[in-house]
Amino acid sequence: MAAPAGSEAQIGFRYSTRVDTFGRDIWAPIVNNFFRFKSMSGLVAKRKLERVDNMDPSNQTLEGVPTEALIAPKFSFNPDTNSISRLIAHFLSKAPTISTPSGGTSSRQWIMTPFEFGDTPSATYIDSLVMEGSDNDGNPILVDGVRMQEINIKIANGKIIDCDFGFLACRDTYTSDPTTILAATYSGKPIVMGHWNQASIALTLKAKITVVAGGGFDGTVKWTTATYAGSTVTQFKFDTWYKIVLDDATRLGVNRNDDLWFCFPSSGATAVALNDEFSWTATRTLATPSFSTLEPLQAAGLEFTAGGTTYYVHDADIKLTRPRKANMVAGSKYALSVQKNGPFAATISINRDRDDRDFLKKLIDGTKFAVVVKMYGNPIELAIDQLWQLDFPNVQVADSQRDVTTPNTLQEKIELVALRSGSSDIFTNTLINTLTAL
Amino acid sequence: MKTIEYLGTGPNPIDVSAVGIVNKGDIVEAEDHIADQLVAQGLFKFVTASKAPVKPPQPE
User: Fold this and answer.
1) Mutation for B interface: A87, A134, A288, most B CBs within 10 A
2) Contact call for A437 and B14, based on CB within 8 A
3) Coil, strand, or helix at residue A94?
């Protein structure tokens, strides 16, 4: 097999709003949101090997035991508003307020603020993502329980805007989406996550319902890679994960700690019927991608205002963060879920000529002022331009470096920190795109 | 080949790798397995071939 090229890589995501017992979204198969990117990393789990502590007379490094697998995807790309809008909605845990700009037909305006305790949760919002990535090595990977923790935006004069999105995730698999062989009424898609042992890679995994709902369970399933000959079955409840044990009581996964898991998601009021059957293969079929047609945002379209006054900057770095941590537990190599690990925060760092003492005065006074960052693109239609606008109603100057280090025009590096004050959100995202719904 | 119509649930217009740039309401033809995927993704729906004029595939 010839090594693939980076240009053959592809990433897409999908989301749903039902949760499993660990607060992790249960996804329906098929990814349907795609974006083009400059680089992607971290979709393959970082696996830790712990060395045995016991003393050994050989005086040589001992075997490592795989103990943990952490998945931390990161993407960098030149953003356009269609590609990022849903990712930002996920970051903020809220549905957007969508309206049509005056005079527009295909363009839409999305306004989003961070979700806070006390808000009524939106009827539909993106809690976690399922991502499918492929570098065209023939084995696309599916990663679930993905939650974003940071957005870095780099604006530099003369350049197309750069954006980094950082995530943490739970489990991964190369397993295909299920093929429904028979489903009388059940409209859900049972999911398989985890890694197959090498000896079984070419087999087809099948599951058949042997007992319908009853006794507190939503069904009983028998698993096989050949014919349903053995007697081992698994009782299951919807939206709960169980290990896959084949009908002859053997394991299809790698080992006890890196096994295959399944989940039958609840699907409306539908129930599984006797002899409903599904199958999976060890390799996914890559999803057909579709992309936004908007061109990426660029620095020439930047408008930066502070306290109502426009300032011209050479470059700006904006960091929006929502710290997360992977919930690693004894009993699993993989994170159980991705948890909150801090509040929403935002910092803006700008480099400009030392045109005035405005920011120095604000640093000395410690006053709060509003900052608005507008990144414009070309018109979507008529006079409606593509736009990503960040409003920070309350910002303080954290630092204003006014060092003299050059005989040429003096520069100033300003660090700004955004805050929540009163009932004003720390930031508001406004996007002009062509997406009609979340 | 199957005939499918773009529902507009993604960006509008949308650039589908195997099909080209499609606007909401456009009817296009695609290979069977690709059409199946696009419908399953919730982006397109199947339509009968004879209905309306089909948008020709975009040149490379």
Assistant:
1) A288
2) no
3) coil
